[in-house]
Amino acid sequence: MYVVGMACGIGPEVMNKDLVMIHARKIPSTFINFKTTVSSACKCKLQCFIIPDCLCITAEIINITSVSCQGSYEDVPYTSLEDNNNTFTFYWRKYERVGNWYYRVGLEEASWFDASMVCYAEGGQLMVAHSDLLQQHLISLFNSHGYKLHIHYNKEVMGNRCFAAYIDMSVTKVVFSNVEFCGVLQSYICQRNY
């Protein structure tokens, strides 16, 4: 189950929209970089907020006054999380605003379906290129992150077919394919309206 946001009194500088909480799933032990014990899931989430390199953290409820926190410096894919009924896993997700939409580059490679599910879990969908201006901003996003220049995208706002695009730096333009790419592992861009 995916839930966006959870009130814990982080402060006005961090909006709940930047937080994704996943119930009953935990970070696998191979990704865990640090552990601590606190008195609540909110305090566990705050541990990840105050540790600069922390990208996600699992709060495992031990009893009414004890929560085990297991954090990772890696951006653990949602699909790698393990089942555990007594846990909440928190991710920080920063979206950049362009026009009326907010975008986030998914740095890990995923199939079109998995990328779609990640975007959906974060309250959005795979990016839809609405205009040439948006295409130019996407080029800037990829250049600033220095990651692979292939992305998954939706051809239409509510489309459910698998398409991919790449950035042709010789003409500084996003080139969109009309061929379906369902199983190819690629980076992706999520978009949402908040």
Please give a quick description of this structure:
With 194 residues, the chain is of the alpha+beta class.
Describe the structure.
InterPro entries: C-type_lectin-like/link_sf, CTDL_fold. This is C-type lectin domain-containing protein. β11 (163-168) and β12 (173-180) form a beta hairpin. The protein is 18% helix and 42% strand. The longest helix has 14 residues, at 132-145. Residues 1-6 and 10-15 have low confidence and may be disordered. It has 3 helices and 13 strands, in the order βββαβββββαβαββββ. The radius of gyration is 18 Å and the shape is elongated. The protein folds into 2 domains: 2-92, Hepatocyte Growth Factor (3-Layer(bba) Sandwich), CATH 3.50.4; 96-192, Roll (Mannose-Binding Protein A, Chain A), CATH 3.10.100.
Blueprint (SSEs and pairs):
Layout: E1 2-4, E2 19-26, E3 34-38, H1 41-50, E4 56-63, E5 66-72, E6 82-92, E7 96-98, E8 101-110, H2 112-121, E9 125-126, H3 132-145, E10 150-153, E11 163-168, E12 173-180, E13 186-192
Keywords:
single chain, 194 residues, alpha+beta, Hepatocyte Growth Factor, Mannose-Binding Protein A, Chain A, 2 domains, seven-stranded mixed sheet, six-stranded antiparallel sheet, 13 strands, 42% strand, elongated, disordered N terminus, CTDL_fold, C-type lectin domain-containing protein, C-type_lectin-like/link_sf
